[in-house]
Amino acid sequence: MNKNELRQKYKALRNQLSTEEIEDKSLAIANRLLQLNIWEKTYFHLFLNIEEQKEVDTEFILQILAGKDKEIVVSKSDFKTHEMTHYLLTDNTKFKKNEYNIPEPIDGLEVLVSKIDVVFVPLLAIDKNGNRVGYGKGFYDNFLAKCREDVIKIGLSFFEPEEIIDDVFKTDIRLDYCVTPFGINNF
Fold this sequence. Notes:
CATH architecture: 3-Layer(aba) Sandwich
Structural class: alpha/beta
Helix content: 10-25%
Mean pLDDT: 96
């Protein structure tokens, strides 16, 4: 399947999930993350889920990171440039949903991309080679291309990987892992 077909398929599958299923699956994903060898790292970039898109609820991961006293980085998106600005999450961070219902920090202490050790990546679909399908705007490919070569890229998905994505581009950045409620896929 190509990216457009996969976007349609996985948006439809996510729309069928109940609020309770999303919560249960999100908690299972967060618990699976504890099995990864990433916890000696310091700076963790976390996306804040879009409830209306029925994304993986990252609140459980946020609680784990805070409990482990990690530096948590969140982003603000610029839809004109398709770039993201990254901010350190603090007790004083205030959020506002943008026009796409993405919760974003209003302002704060900016974090350089070079500091980030681990990135949790949203996705609609992924294949068995670690290639992902997002919403098609390129925000995460742009962001990941600027990260250090050794940054750990972890996709979060309610569903298991597809065999292959037919139209992968050279600019697409492969992930290192994808964590689902059922297990950890290592690429």
